[in-house]
Specification:
The chain is an alpha+beta fold and about 180 residues long. The protein has 2 domains: about 5-70, 2,3-Dihydroxybiphenyl 1,2-Dioxygenase, domain 1; about 90-180, 2,3-Dihydroxybiphenyl 1,2-Dioxygenase, domain 1 (Roll). The chain is built from 3 helices and 9 strands. It has a 5-stranded mixed beta sheet, covered by helices on one side. Strands 1-4-3-2 form a 4-stranded mixed beta sheet. A hairpin with a 7-residue loop joins strand 2 (about 25-35) and strand 3. The two termini are about 35 Å apart.
């Protein structure tokens, strides 16, 4: 079962919209404006992007990412929007990964990001290849392509490793940084 949507707060709707439509290649499909809960004069915009990708009719079927623009005196406007920094974590921990069904899709996303002026981190994790950048709120986003099926031995080892206090390391990823075009 896939995600319907993931929702994050933003302080800059215009920058968020530009990033998720032009840089990520998603389509705005819905905006909902409504009062915020609590019975006071606050309101919000909740806006949704289809992650289906370019050339595909936008819908919620592929999953969506959504954002909140909040106007509420009780909430204020100083709330954190970078989920890692404000959790006391480095930039790479919490992130949102989107599927790239083929390597060609992954490379198309990578090249679009570079054309929009981003340095792109690409990592070969053995079972998948991923690319990473940060959005206007400094949240890390990723496109990832699974390059091979998981083996039964790999799944069994994963079940053994899961609750080990300090499991043996099982590999290092190969990383490349691609400069903007």
């Amino acid at each position: 079962m896939g995600f319907h949507h993931v929702a994050l707060a933003t302080r800059d709707t215009a920058a968020t919209h530009d990033f998720y439509t032009n840089v990520m290649g998603f389509s705005l499909v819905k905006v909902v404006a409504s009062p915020t809960p609590g019975g006071h004069d606050g309101w919000s915009k909740h806006f949704f992007y289809s992650t289906a990708g370019e050339g595909i009719t936008p819908s919620g079927d592929a999953g969506m990412i959504a954002f909140w623009e909040i106007h509420d005196e009780q909430i204020g406007d100083k709330f954190p929007v970078d989920i890692n920094t404000h959790a006391g974590l480095p930039w790479w921990v919490n992130h949102i990964a989107f599927d790239a069904p083929t390597l060609e899709d992954l490379y198309r996303h990578r090249d679009r990001w570079r054309k929009h002026g981003h340095h792109v981190l690409e990592i070969d994790h053995d079972f998948c290849r991923s690319i990473y950048i940060r959005d206007p709120d400094e949240n890390m986003v990723e496109f990832s392509h699974t390059t091979r099926p998981f083996t039964e031995a790999e799944i069994a080892l994963s079940n053994e490793m899961l609750l080990q206090a300090k499991p043996d390391f099982n590999g290092h990823a190969n990383a490349t940084v691609h400069a903007p075009l």
